[in-house]
Amino acid sequence: MTLKITKCNHEDLKLLQKISIETFNDTFKNQNSPENINYV
Known about the structure:
By secondary structure, the protein is mainly alpha-helical. Helices cover 50% and strands 0% of the residues. The protein contains 2 helices and no strands. The protein has helices spanning 13-28, 34-37.
């Protein structure tokens, strides 16, 4: 696997938000109630 790190810009914000939400949910959903997870 090859990774490429680039600086984010305004065009990347929606994708960054999507990745952040998915990562948070995958990591913490079992430790929180559905109300806490579905805040977005």
